[in-house]
């Protein structure tokens, strides 16, 4: 670096630099204003007992964190958030991968299928959840109606503490498949056809081709999909918020960290505590992402 | 590429709208034109960089970036965005005012879209009498309303005139967000506090200062399915009904997949009413929990017994509750007067249902509450805003509100006109209950302890713990929460 500075910088270099900065400026400004500053503010706020309307915050040190450790709901929320992630990520990516491979082949009406799979992503989560709520309805929902036709007992999809998280995970999986599928599909299209042709000549089966050619070559995209899906799943909020009230018996078994943050910050006007809750989520996501970055060399195969 | 950008947003809460993982995905690994993507150099951009330290920094970055979706709600960023819709008209109005000295534009924020039409009519009448004032009505749904208002209060851009509620008045009044109306009421010809129910005045009175004028009130009625009653040969409920009548009727009506009564996990439209009918209390005068009062526990036990005995389904959500009634799955249910327009529009309800006063035990009781019209302390048009509130609160305004069927007007005698506004149901029952109505229990942090109590009482509804134990837990958490109150 010093070496560069000592030398006279040519007009061309300057020009290149300024262009470079100019081109990344929109993203940088966006990141700083919308992301970095709020993160710092949130971290800062988590050390305060917040006053009403952003005034009269009182510094209380680690008090919010101390309270948090003894709050059983926070631990419920951590467990629920991780469980949700564990339910959604593997299943949704496996299905997305399968669909992407199928759609990557020669198939009549391919673009139609792609669109169909993508539609859940386009729909507003709130609207999607409303529809699912109808289907899950205990008394006259479509699913329980179907069960009764088959002579099976009705299930309390949204109020049974043992079942509610599964119901929510199903919505989560259903919503994210299309998005992951399109990403993976694009990754699949990067793979040169020669590999498949060569392996065809060698007599490899389709399944073997998938594991030996497709999977290793799509791994960079897959890695990206895994990382973002995990982060997205950790932030689950709207589906739970729409389906589960505080008065719902399944609340303790479904409340996520973001929901808890929302309730504390906005419903109970305790922004300091809400910020502390969300810092836990930040720490969790950071730890998980860090390990994923470390693990990437083990399985991600950059061509 | 555009394709994706459109798809990632659309989250329900505003603070989540920025969730776009694409922002930090520099060389698009996937989509885009084939030539670009086929280039061997793309490899998920930054992530592939070899240096360990850099990877670590980036992992933190990645995590941090996505997290802001949550974090941002705390800072001012969110506040400003959500406040802008309400702020804009005010600023525009101020600008016109300054420039030409012409019309003063007022923003009137409300949360019930059912009332919008009627209120618009009243506002038009006000405008025709005051040609120099223009009123813009803004409707925001209940929960977003408070987020919007909080953002407005934080950013100093509240609507000029807006609805207030017993759950929230303390925070707003205590922090100087509301214009003190005491002197203006004192000087006013049209607004005299003795014309409104004392309980409602008290909600909006802090330290002897009046911060809002009661607009309307609501009570809870017993809705019943006449057809099901006829089929079962049960007499319709009336003011002579006791708890025993309710229980035996529920028993007679429970058959063929129909539940006799709805005992949902709900306070205002549920067990609060029974608690006060039994002489119990939810919050005492010295701001202690009443959940451990034996009378309260007795009432809760009676209420939960409907679920225990299979006379009521276990029901938790608000929408589910009304749907059970609308689909003929439940014969009776407690619902507030604000449901009236929705129930009238429902053909099944209009045809089969009617409403009666609540049954009694030790006493008659129905939880009642009322909104108030408040004015922003920092409004640019305090005089015009007060003029509007004065009109809304005057005999004329209140009677118009009743006639138009907007809400049960708070003004003495105006409620009778409201009774005539709906011929479908016997809505006189709602007005009859005011004489023994109990104001919905509240303190400075109602929203907090109400939820804590819900959490504690839930296991009793699902039969996991005894009602007594749940009630004692509720009292404990509620008292802890009240102790933290300023």
TrEMBL record, chain A:
Pfam families (alphabetical): BPD_transp_1
InterPro entries per UniProt: ABC_transporter_permease, MetI-like, MetI-like_sf
Transmembrane segments: 21-40, 82-103, 115-135, 163-188, 209-233, 273-293
Compartment(s) where it occurs, according to its Swiss-Prot or TrEMBL record: Cell membrane
Membrane topology: Multi-pass membrane protein
Keywords: Cell membrane, Membrane, Transmembrane, Transmembrane helix, Transport
Domain called ABC transmembrane type-1: residue spans: 78-292
UniProt main location, coarse: membrane
Gene3D superfamilies: MetI-like (1.10.3720.10)
Family: Belongs to the binding-protein-dependent transport system permease family.
Record-given protein name: Sugar ABC transporter permease
Classification lineage: Bacteria, Bacillati, Bacillota, Bacilli, Bacillales
């Amino acid at each position: 670096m010093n070496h560069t500075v000592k030398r006279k910088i040519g007009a061309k270099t300057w020009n290149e630099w300024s262009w470079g900065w100019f081109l990344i400026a929109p993203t940088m400004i966006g990141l700083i204003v919308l992301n970095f500053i709020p993160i710092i503010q949130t971290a800062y706020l988590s050390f305060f007992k917040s006053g009403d309307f952003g005034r009269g915050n009182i510094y209380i040190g680690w008090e919010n964190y101390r309270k948090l450790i003894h709050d059983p709901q926070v631990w419920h929320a951590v467990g629920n958030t991780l469980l949700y992630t564990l339910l959604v990520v593997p299943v949704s990516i496996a299905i997305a991968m399968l669909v992407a491979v199928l759609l990557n082949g020669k198939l009549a009406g391919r673009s139609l299928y792609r669109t169909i799979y993508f539609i859940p992503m386009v729909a507003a989560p709130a609207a999607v959840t409303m529809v699912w709520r109808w289907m899950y309805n205990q008394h006259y929902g479509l699913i329980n109606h179907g069960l009764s036709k088959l002579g099976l007992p009705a299930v309390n999809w949204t109020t049974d503490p043992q079942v509610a998280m599964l119901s929510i995970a199903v919505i989560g999986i259903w919503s994210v498949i299309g998005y992951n599928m399109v990403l993976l599909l694009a990754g699949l299209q990067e793979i040169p056809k020669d590999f498949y042709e060569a392996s065809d000549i060698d007599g490899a089966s389709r399944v073997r081709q998938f594991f030996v050619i497709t999977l290793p070559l799509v791994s960079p995209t897959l890695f990206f999909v895994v990382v973002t899906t995990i982060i997205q799943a950790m932030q689950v909020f709207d589906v739970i918020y729409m389906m589960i009230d505080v008065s719902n018996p399944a609340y303790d078994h479904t409340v996520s960290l973001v929901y808890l943050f929302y309730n504390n910050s906005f419903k109970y006007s305790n922004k300091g505590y809400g910020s502390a809750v969300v810092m836990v989520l930040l720490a969790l996501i950071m730890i998980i992402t860090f390990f994923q970055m470390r693990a990437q060399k083990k399985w991600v195969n950059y061509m | 590429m555009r394709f994706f950008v459109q798809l990632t947003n659309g989250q329900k809460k505003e603070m989540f709208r920025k969730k776009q993982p694409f922002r930090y995905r520099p060389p698009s690994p996937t989509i885009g034109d084939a030539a670009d993507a086929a280039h061997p150099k793309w490899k998920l951009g930054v992530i592939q960089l070899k240096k360990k330290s850099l990877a670590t920094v980036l992992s933190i970055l990645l995590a941090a970036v996505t997290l802001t979706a949550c974090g941002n709600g705390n800072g001012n960023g969110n506040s400003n965005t959500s406040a802008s819709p309400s702020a804009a008209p005010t600023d525009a109005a101020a600008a016109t005012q300054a420039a030409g000295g012409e019309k003063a534009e007022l923003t009137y924020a409300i949360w019930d879209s059912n009332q919008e039409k009627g209120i618009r009519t009243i506002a038009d009448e006000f405008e025709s009498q005051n040609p120099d004032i223009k009123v813009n009505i803004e409707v925001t749904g209940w929960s977003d309303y408070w987020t919007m208002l909080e953002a407005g209060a934080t950013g100093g851009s509240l609507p000029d005139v807006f609805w207030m509620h017993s759950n929230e008045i303390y925070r707003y009044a205590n922090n100087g967000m509301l214009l003190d109306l005491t002197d203006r009421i004192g000087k006013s010809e049209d607004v005299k506090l003795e014309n409104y129910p004392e309980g409602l005045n008290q909600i909006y009175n802090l330290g002897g200062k009046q911060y809002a004028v009661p607009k309307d009130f609501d009570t809870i009625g017993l809705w019943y399915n006449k057809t099901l009653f006829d089929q079962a040969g049960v007499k319709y409920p009336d003011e002579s009904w006791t708890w025993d009548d309710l229980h035996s009727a529920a028993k007679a009506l429970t058959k063929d997949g129909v539940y006799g009564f709805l005992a949902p996990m709900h306070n205002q439209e549920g067990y609060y009413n029974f608690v006060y009918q039994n002489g119990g209390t939810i919050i005492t005068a010295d701001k202690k929990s009443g959940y451990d009062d034996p009378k309260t526990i007795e009432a809760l036990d009676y209420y939960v017994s409907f679920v225990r005995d299979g006379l009521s389904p276990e029901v938790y959500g608000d929408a589910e509750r009304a749907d059970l009634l609308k689909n003929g799955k439940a014969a009776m249910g407690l619902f507030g007067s604000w449901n009236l327009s929705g129930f009238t529009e429902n053909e099944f309800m209009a045809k089969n249902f009617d409403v009666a006063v609540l049954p009694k035990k030790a006493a008659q009781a129905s939880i009642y509450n009322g909104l108030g019209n408040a004015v922003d302390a920092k409004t640019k048009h305090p005089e015009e805003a007060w003029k509007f509130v004065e009109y809304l609160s005057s005999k004329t305004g209140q009677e118009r509100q009743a006639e138009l069927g907007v809400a049960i007007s708070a003004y003495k005698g105006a409620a009778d006109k409201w009774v005539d506004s709906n011929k479908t149901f016997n809505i006189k029952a709602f007005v009859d209950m005011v004489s023994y109505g109990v104001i919905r229990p509240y303190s400075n942090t109602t929203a907090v302890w109400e939820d804590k109590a819900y959490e504690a009482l839930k296991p009793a509804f699902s039969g996991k713990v005894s009602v007594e134990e749940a009630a004692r837990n509720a009292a404990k958490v509620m008292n802890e929460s009240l102790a933290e109150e300023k």
